[in-house]
Design a protein that fits this description.
Length: 256
């Protein structure tokens, strides 16, 4: 990651210089409801034309994980996100998770697991034939056949990568708008350097917020960050003794 130059003197540049141009004055963010909190978030202006990185179109001929229902026969490609060979009384079975951009589903192969296991790796795109069943009240695919897919040219990689469903451009603009409310000149300039660094911003907008526990999808980091920042703003409104500028800046940078 590029190093940021040192902060200049106490007099910070205007926010339109730090954040890339004078913004239109029409944006508002929703109020965060907390017990005893009756204030309203101040109206803030936003700018920045960011590319729409996350628009997804769905293949109407494809069966997505989110649409799987018990009793459904499946035949098609999925990402292999987990795999383990497990013992049972009749031998060994293959326990896997199959995924696409809409989610993940558990799956199991009972027959021929030991022969199949050495030919697969986590991260493979696999062709799967099977049927959706339930196990302990959760959906599970019972696999009849699973093979690594060798010809990937006909596939869209975005079909297998989960991405944020919200408007990423709107999230980014709201985050920038809150950053503009910081009054400390040193923190404001530091924030400006972040928001104007195209390489860092591009990576930030594409990064997941985590690997498993929360926001584990493309664009999850910026979505998670905005949620944390909004909560910090609401808390600062509730408790005036808190150093709001430090809190907001720390919230924006907390997962970088």
């Amino acid at each position: 990651m590029p190093r940021w130059p040192g902060i200049r003197g106490k007099e910070a540049a205007p926010t339109e210089e730090l954040f890339g141009g004078a913004p239109p004055a029409n944006a508002r963010f929703p109020v965060i409801e907390l017990p005893g909190y009756t204030g309203e978030m101040e109206s803030m202006s936003i700018d920045a034309e960011q590319p729409d990185l996350f628009t997804q179109t769905e293949n109407p001929n494809r069966l997505w994980v989110k649409d799987l229902e018990p009793g459904t026969d499946i035949s098609g490609p999925f990402a292999l996100t987990h795999m383990a060979l497990k013992p049972y009384t009749g031998g060994k079975f293959l326990q896997v998770k199959l995924g696409d951009k809409t989610g993940r589903v558990a799956a199991v192969l009972w027959n021929g697991a030991e022969e199949v296991y050495p030919n697969l790796d986590i991260g493979d795109i696999v062709d799967v034939q099977g049927k959706v069943d339930t196990y302990r009240d959760k959906k599970q695919v019972v696999i009849r056949r699973i093979d690594r897919k060798e010809d990937l040219d006909s596939l869209d990689p975005n079909d297998f990568i989960a991405a944020v469903q919200a408007d990423v451009k709107g999230i980014w603009e709201d985050l920038k708008a809150i950053a503009r409310t910081v009054k400390d000149p040193h923190l404001l300039e530091l924030l400006g350097k972040f928001f104007k660094d195209e390489a860092i911003v591009d990576a930030f907008l594409r990064a997941p917020g985590g690997k498993q526990w929360h926001h584990g999808y493309i664009g999850g980091l910026v979505e998670h960050t905005l949620g944390v920042v909004r909560n910090c703003v609401a808390i600062a409104e509730q408790y005036p003794f808190i150093k709001r500028d430090v809190l907001v800046t720390g919230a924006i940078f907390h997962d970088l």
